[in-house]
Amino acid sequence: MAGGEGGDPVQGAMTLRRLLLPLLDGTALVGSLLAAMYLRFDQTLEEVLAYDRLPEKVLLNVSVLMVCLYYSGAYEDWPLQRPIEALFRFVRGFTAGLVVLLVVYYSIPPLTVGRGILILSLIFSLLSVLSIRGLYRWLGEEDGFGERLLILGTGTTAQNVAREILKRRPW
Fold first, then answer.
1. How far is CA 152 from the centre of its chain?
2. Is 3 in a helix, a strand, or coil?
3. Under a CB-based contact definition with an 8 Å cutoff, are residues 66 and 22 in contact?
4. What is 57-109 written as a DSSP string?
5. What is the largest CA-CA distance in the chain?
6. pTM for the whole thing?
7. Helices 54-71 and 83-107 meet at what angle, rounded to 10?
8. How does pLDDT run across 39-80, given as a tens digit for each residue?
9. What is the pLDDT of residue 78?
10. Rg of the chain, C-alpha, whole Å
11. Residue 7 pLDDT class (50, 70, 90 cuts)
12. How far is 6 from 125, CA to CA, in rounded Å?
C-alpha cells in the first residue's frame, strides 16, 4: 500500500480514542470555569462572556490543568488503571495545577480569576472529568467495545502475543 492508503483500522481507532479523552476533558474544564463564573456572580450568560480577559483566563486555566493532568499520568493506560490509582493521579494533577495557577496569578495579576471562581471551577472540573472518565470506562467495558481473551502458556510466543494485544488495544 502506498503512503496513507488503506491503513490499520485498529491504529485509527486507537488514535481516535487517545484524542477523545483530552478533547472531552478540555471541554469539561472550559464548561466548569464558565459555570463557576456564572454561579459565583449570578449573572446572565452574556455578562459572563463579557468578563474581563475571559479568553486568556480560560486558555490559561485549561492549559495548566491539562498539562498537569498529563504529567500526573492521568492519560497513561487509562482503562488499565485501578479506580483508586486513577483518582490519586487526578487529585495529584489538580493539586499541581492549583499550585501552578496560584504562582501565575501572583506573577501576572490581570489573569487572576478570583478565589471563589477558582475553587468552584476546580471542584466542578474534578467532578466533571471524573464523571467523563467513569462513563468512558463503563462504555469501554460493554461487549461491543471490548473482548476478554485468555492466553494459555508462558513461553516467548505467548508473551509476544500478549504484548502485541496490549500494544494494539484500542483504548
1. 35
2. coil
3. yes
4. HHHHHHHHHHHHHHHTTTTSSGGGS-HHHHHHHHHHHHHHHHHHHHHHHHH-G
5. 65
6. 0.69
7. 140
8. 887 778 788 787 888 889 899 999 999 999 899 888 776 555
9. 58
10. 20
11. low
12. 39
> 49: part of which helix (H) or strand (E)?
helix 45-49
Please list, in sequence order, all residues whose beta carbon lies within 8 angstroms of the beta carbon of residue 136, skipping any fewer than 6 positions away.
20, 21, 24, 78, 171
At 29, list the grid cell: 474544564
Please give the grid coordinates belonging to residue 54.
475571559
Is 132 exposed, middle or buried, given 0-12, 13-18 or 19+ CB atoms closer than 10 A? Answer: middle
- Counting every residue written for the chain, the total comes to 171
Question: From CA 63, how far away is CA 83, in angstroms rounded?
Answer: 25
Tell me how far apart the alpha carbons of residues 16 and 9 are, in angstroms, rounded to a whole number: 11
